[in-house]
Amino acid sequence: MASPLRREDATLPADLRDALTRSRLAGAVSNLAGVEVLEFSSDWWDGQSHGPCLIVRGGRRHRLLRVVETGGEAVVVPFDGRTAGRWIAQRRTPGSSGLGIPGPRSAGDVVVDAAGDVQTCATPTCGALLPVGYEGDCPVCGGDGVAGVGGAGVVGVRDEKSTATGARTAGSSTSK
Q1: Within 13 A of 152's CA, how many CA atoms are on the CB side?
Q2: Which of 40, 58, 79, 108 has a CA positioned 20 to 30 A from the CA of residue 130?
Q3: Is the Cα torsion angle 11, 14, 20, 25 positive or negative in sign?
Q4: Distance between CA atoms of residues 97 and 153, nearest Å
Q5: Which residues is 44 bridged to in the sheet?
């Protein structure tokens, strides 16, 4: 079979793409004084990906430079492939999320000391921290005692302590 007929003046889509890319990259450096466009490569390897590259001569010392597109922007990088790849890789690294380590507390912050500023519920199975001088039922376990009155559910300071295994001492039913 014969190849399909093609007009001689018709351009291929890749040629049109390359022409538009070249003009976009050339436009990015057109405002610089004394820039001379030397070559265009549609498939330059920067160490991480293939992309279009425009080679120009310019700058203060009239050096060879590359104009590449990364992150939607045209960037001028050194001509050396390794150095250019490092510059582009540095631009591709994700930025900070804005979250960091919080700073030290200011002097006006309120700090609660659990040993002196609160009392615990007297119910053996409840460990609710309540304000000093709290009277009434425990809001956590619902104990029905009043501070200063003996019985279960009384809010106050306990004399018993728990060990590392959770066993209670000094008046607990499990102590011997």
Answers
A1: 7
A2: 108
A3: negative
A4: 48
A5: 51
pLDDT of residue 61: 81
Are the CB atoms for 151 and 145 separated by under 8 Å? yes
> 1-5, 61-65, 66-70: lowest mean pLDDT where?
1-5
Residue showing tokens 């804005």:
98
The answer for 47, left when phi > 0, alpha when psi is -120 to 50, beta otherwise, is left
Distance CA 20, CA 17 (A): 5
Count the neighbouring beta carbons within 10 Å of the beta carbon of residue 169: 13
34 near 62, Cβ under 8 Å? yes
At 112-168, the pLDDT tens digits run 666 777 788 888 888 788 888 888 888 888 875 434 434 444 445 455 555 656 555
